[in-house]
Design goal:
The protein is an alpha/beta fold. It is built from 14 helices and 17 strands. It has 2 domains: about 140 residues, Aspartate Aminotransferase, domain 1; about 230 residues, 3-Layer(aba) Sandwich (Aspartate Aminotransferase, domain 2). Bound molecules: pyridoxal-5'-phosphate.
Length: about 400
């Protein structure tokens, strides 16, 4: 049996995959087992920020692979310590870091820390969490409770209690939801899965004021929009509003599983040995690679490249004047193309044009290529996107 037949027979059918098998890649290009090449505007869902076949990543992996892969959190290790120090150094609000293995674990940790913070300082009863329409915070029971999509939640009820929802970018709705029973407000500064919706600056400013007023923590979920994706290292740095807790994951180790929660000293102060933990997180193999990612992406020249290519991509998408494109949103290389038709057939048609595309909701294309993409490659992507839209429309 070929890999597709094996998967169909032996994997739980929790995903629909296109009928080819990826086997290699270089830069922003992926290749299947038949030798077809795809220009990748997906990056494994905003993960492979440095693209494929990066020499420094490969060397780091070879060196780290010669050493023990795992010591556990029972012991110190140097790459983890260096990564924590580096993340704090480049993140103005943050004093300390706690590592996880995925995005959903980082939002779980953030919510647990917020509950413990409120319980420590304000006693029982301050346990509610406010999240927003269109949010995506992960698939585990707590994160899922803060992810208001019926399709994702309904089969698994009951979820974690104590989550309230307000409308994203609606200050009045947020003000109505945030009271003294709330321990934390969690949101994505730019929503990813929900359709690439940036927060309005005034909305973030209002949330910061409301959370101060009601002694609640502000959590930014930058699992998708963080680590250079928008042209700043963190997306919230475009807005001048600082959180108490920040969640990171997807691109932080360029494809190896990792999560990180960055916190202020005040938050860190309530967490003591044994309060929260996980077996694999912070291992030397993964954090060695994350150190390379953080060093490279935090370079001003790298971030300038993302700003420049992102602005170019957005402008050229607008200049296409395609009748099916009704709006282009987003920042840096996190772009949403609002279509006047369903996105799924466009994603399908892209494969035949050698283009990997991803939707975000029913009628939005989410363009989140490797951050190393060049203007020439963006030109190629636009030619292929135009051909794809022409075929579907
Ligand atoms: C993907 C994502 C998550 C969940 O990350 P996983 O690694 O899939 O658990 C959480 N928040 C946001 C904003 C995401 O995009």
């Amino acid at each position: 049996m070929n890999p597709i037949e094996l998967e169909q027979k032996y994997l739980v059918h929790a995903y629909n995959r296109p009928p080819f098998v990826l086997a290699d890649g270089q830069g922003v290009w992926l290749e299947d087992t038949e030798g077809n090449r795809y220009l990748d505007l997906v990056a494994g869902i905003a993960v492979s920020a440095l693209g494929y076949g990066d020499a420094e990543i490969a060397e780091t992996i070879c060196a780290a692979g010669q050493k023990p892969l795992h010591y556990s959190n029972l012991y110190h290790n140097e790459p983890m310590a260096r990564l924590a120090a580096r993340l704090v150094e480049i993140t103005p609000f943050a004093d300390r870091v706690h590592f996880q293995n995925s995005g959903t674990e980082s939002t779980e940790a953030a919510m647990k820390f917020a509950r413990k913070f409120a319980r420590t300082h304000f006693g029982e009863g301050k346990t509610n969490i406010v999240a927003f329409t269109g949010a995506f915070h992960g698939r585990t029971m707590g994160a899922l409770a803060a992810t208001p999509r019926e399709k994702y939640q309904k089969p698994y009820l009951p979820l974690m209690p104590g989550v309230r929802f307000a409308r994203y970018n609606d200050i009045e709705s947020a003000a109505a939801a945030i009271d003294d029973s709330v321990c934390a407000v969690i949101l994505e500064p730019i929503q990813g899965e929900g359709g690439i919706h940036p927060a309005a600056e005034a909305f973030l400013v209002a949330l910061r004021e409301l959370t101060h007023q009601h002694n609640a923590l502000l959590i930014f979920d930058e699992v998708q929009c963080g680590v250079g994706r928008t042209g700043a290292f963190w997306a919230h740095q475009h807005f001048g509003v600082l959180p108490d807790i920040l969640c990171s994951a997807k691109p932080l180790a360029n494809g190896l599983p990792i999560g990180a929660v960055l916190v202020t000293e005040r938050v860190a102060d309530v967490i003591h040995p044994g309060d929260h933990g996980t077996t694999f997180a912070g291992g030397p193999f993964v954090t060695s690679v994350a150190n390379v990612v953080v060093d490279r992406i935090s370079e001003p020249a790298f971030l300038a490249h993302v700003q420049e290519t992102g602005a170019y991509f957005q402008q050229r998408l607008q200049d296409l004047g395609n009748p099916h494109i009704t709006e282009v949103r987003g920042r840096g290389l996190m772009l949403g193309v609002q279509l006047d038709m369903p996105a799924a057939p466009v994603v399908q048609a892209g494969y035949k044009q050698g283009l990997l595309l991803l939707n975000a909701g029913a009628d939005v294309l989410r363009l989140v290529p490797p951050l190393i993409i060049s203007k020439d490659e963006i030109d190629t992507a636009l030619d292929r996107l135009a051909a794809t839209l022409a075929e579907v429309g």
